[in-house]
Write a structure and sequence with these properties.
EC 2.3.1.-; seven-stranded mixed sheet; Aminoglycoside N(3)-acetyltransferase; Amioglycoside_AcTrfase; single chain; antibiotic resistance; Antibiotic_NAT-like; two-stranded antiparallel ribbon; 262 residues
């Protein structure tokens, strides 16, 4: 059973530094049993980072979009009338209440629900942060920005933040999507999300943004491992971990995508 003291020691040994900003992606199961569940990890991170540090997590809600595979899956086999009723009943995104997608794990939702956490307002690809930089990192997250230049990802890149991947492959870092926005003439897509407007009315919004893909990230694993000289690896509890500089990783991903256009 891992406690806060042990996890804090492991984080320090891994290379986490006091006062830094960390984007955390985790498979909690890989850590092993923790004394107080997921809260043990959060407490350990905050102890090591100190009051000037910031924990950032991805709190996306892809189910809120009628262009998301996750959102469309439940409508398979429905009649047009049933599908229409399904979308008309879809609750609008509320950054204070809408839970993080279950595919992102318990830790992201734990941070989102913390009373001091701040969440960005994007109805599909929000982030939540806890710490000294939380408000600045999550403000002005534009709809078309998604995971690009007008999102918390760009701010993490610009501020020299790092990503801590706990039990997660190095190529799975969400921030690498920023590289897709840096390509020449990236493919675009029309997105739709349901929101509550300033007048309190439920409505759908549609916007054009970069067509995000996941399938090209796993093939860049070796390029990332050899192209990031500052990449650190170690263990947290039972979990294998990576600690990487987001800017360095995005630059490697950008170069890989430019050299492997399809």
């Amino acid at each position: 059973m891992y406690g806060v003291d042990r996890l804090a020691e492991d984080l320090t040994r891994l290379g986490v530094e006091r006062g830094e900003t960390l984007l955390v992606q985790s498979s909690l199961r890989s850590i092993g049993p923790m004394a107080d569940g997921p809260g043990t990890l959060l407490e350990a991170l905050r102890r090591v980072l100190g009051p000037e540090g910031t924990v950032v997590v991805y709190t996306a809600t892809p189910e809120n979009s009628n262009t998301s595979r996750l959102a469309l899956a439940p409508t398979d086999g429905m009649t047009p009338e049933q599908s229409r009723a399904y979308w008309e009943a879809k609750p609008p995104f509320d950054r204070a209440r809408t839970p993080t997608s279950k595919i992102l794990g318990h830790f992201s939702e734990l941070v989102r629900r913390h009373p001091d956490a701040v969440r960005s307002s994007h109805p599909q690809t929000s982030f939540a942060a806890l710490g000294s930089q939380a408000r600045e990192l999550t403000r002005r997250h534009r709809w078309a920005g998604h995971l690009g230049q007008h999102s918390p990802v760009q701010k993490l890149y610009d501020r020299g933040a790092r990503a801590l991947l706990i039990g997660v492959p190095v190529w799975c870092c969400t921030a690498f999507h920023l590289a897709e926005y840096l390509q020449d003439d990236p493919p675009m897509q029309r997105y739709g999300c349901v929101i509550t407007d300033p007048g309190g009315r439920r409505r759908w919004v549609h916007f054009e943004a970069v067509h995000l893909r996941d399938e090209h990230f796993e093939p860049m694993a070796s390029a990332l491992e050899t192209g990031m000289p500052s990449l650190l690896s170690g263990t947290l509890g039972d979990a294998s971990c990576y600690l990487l500089r987001i800017a360095e990783g995005v630059d490697v991903a950008d170069k890989f995508l430019r050299g492997n256009r399809s």
